[in-house]
Amino acid sequence: MTFTKNILLINPFVYDFTAFDYWAKPKGLLEVGKIFTELGFTVELIDCLCKEDKDMAAFARQRSGIQQALVKQYGTGRCCRQEIEKPPNMNTIARRMYRFGIHPDLLRERLKNLKTKPTLIGVSGIMTYWCRGVKETIAIVKDIFPYTPVVLGGIYPSLIPEHAREYSGADIIFSGKVTKERLISLLQQTGLCTTISGRTDHADTCFFYPYPDPSYGVINLSEGCPKNCTYCASKILRPHYTGHNVEMALQEIKFFADQGIQDIAFYDDALLFQKEKRLLPFLEQVVDEFPLLRFHTPNGMHLDLLDNKTADLMYRANFKTLRFGFETAQPELSIRTGLKIRLHNCKNKIEILKEAGFTREHIGIYVMIGLPGQTVESVEESLEFVRSCRVNANITEFSPIPGTIEFVNAQQNAPVDFTADPELQNNSLLPLRDRTFSFDVVNRLKNICYRAPRKSAISDHQMPSVNRYFMLNQGKN
After folding, report:
1. Number of other CB atoms surrounding residue 16 within 10 Å
2. Quick one: which H or E segment has residue 392?
3. 426: Cβ–Cβ under 8 A, 6 or more apart, which residues?
């Protein structure tokens, strides 16, 4: 293979009302960097959302109005932010908007000071509603390197490629899964790779994680999800569930441990699925070889797949953050959207976690608010049920994801057209899209999570009838 050697990857700054680093790294972009490195390229990463960026910290101290980054427990936190003016269609929102991450002036300076001019620039687009940051980042890049091809990949161009093509300013839109073969094809398309010789299907041999003083690492044991929840894009982005090689995952863990990283976050959509093949053998090795590491699962796991052996191994492997999907106790809505777990099963599984040694501090159950057809009363009942189990209820505001069934359902009675403007798909703008969930209502629901739990709104004697509804309708799932 003959090619030019320098590639620059950029994770853009974002515009949002809130952006917490809950073990959030651009995993797809890091995979791109890994593959290009294996192919012999020199790859440089500019992650505009890196909260450990010392240059940005120094820049923030010299500029008024920029709040410093925060590093919190287990490596979470928030990158630098600066308040900005809201777009006209969001002026009625009584919340402040910020630009999170590297200041555009610092990005320009960093691009100008690159030692070697890149011959290809890859930009990641994660959330659809972060498209403005993508566009502005690409504009800065093209101002500095007007003749260098810019490729936009990630979730945003995969879900709405036509919008990305018309709006972002990128030269090439890369939709879908990243593979070595597709990246080689991209190199040929841009003229950076003229011939291919030898094998390109060899096993992965390197890791790409070029962060200064990283506070955590990220890992996958699998990709995709066997379920097909109507609000989730997993099946669109990864139509087939596939498992990763356990030995390679253990090598990656060793790579992180050798860098002094102690906290590791799983990015799997279905970590407990086929656990006997991957998770359990992985944890058995971790317990023996990496006793000082701490593990976190920010993506909601499937609580119905938990058993005593798995809970025990997770506790022994030092899992500190467990998050599980529950979404709603509203029977019809639960059946329609994917049925994560039945109520009596939920309580039983939580008891298994507690028997293994986990406490309320470790366990969080996601409850979604704002699903099309959801009532405020059902959210209150869901929150009280979760809290009656003596674990934390974690609210997630519904965001309509293009291509999903609930995206279509949410359009039907929405007072604003969020299909044409992806920024309106932001989960923080739920009250704009659904008047049932006003800002006051959303705040009141969030406050329920912080007060002392009371007896569940769905009492024990009501549970059999609720679960009988689930069983009668399970064929609809």
Report:
1. 20
2. strand 392-397
3. 16, 17, 127, 129, 399
In the chain, the amino acid numbered 266 is F
Per-residue pLDDT tens over the stretch 420-434: 999 999 999 999 999
Q: How does pLDDT run across 87-114, given as a tens digit for each residue?
A: 998 988 889 999 999 999 999 999 999 9
DSSP string covering 395-463, please? EEE--PPTTSHHHHHHHTT-SS-TTT-GGGG-GGGHHHH-TTS-HHHHHHHHHHTTSPP-S-SS-TTTH
Domain 2-195 CATH (choose: 3.30.1360.120, 3.40.50.2300, 3.30.1330.60, 3.30.2270.10): 3.40.50.2300
Tokens standing for residue 47: 């992650």
Q: Which homologous superfamily does the CATH classification assign to the domain defined by 225-476?
A: tm_1862 like domain (3.80.30.20)
pTM attached to this predicted model: 0.91
What span, in angstroms and rounded, lies between the C-alpha atoms of 253 and 267? 14
Q: Which residues pair with 83 in a beta bridge?
A: 98
Euclidean distance between CA atoms 366 and 323, whole angstroms:
7
Q: Residue length, the chain?
A: 477
Answer whether 51's CB lies under 8 Å from 24's CB: no
Place of tokens 């008891």: 351
Q: Which pLDDT belongs to residue 465?
A: 37
Instruction: Enumerate the domain spans of the chain.
Output: 2-195, 225-476
Supply φ then ψ for residue 354, to 5 degrees. -70, -35
Burial classification of residue 389, based on how many CB atoms lie within 10 Å of its CB (0-12 exposed, 13-18 middle, 19 or more buried):
buried
Alpha-carbon distance of 20 to 166, in angstroms, equals: 29
Helix (H, G, I), strand (E, B) or coil at 474: helix
Contacts of 415 (CB under 8 A, 6+ apart): 432, 433, 435
Torsion sign over Cα 411, 415, 421, 425: negative
DSSP 21: B
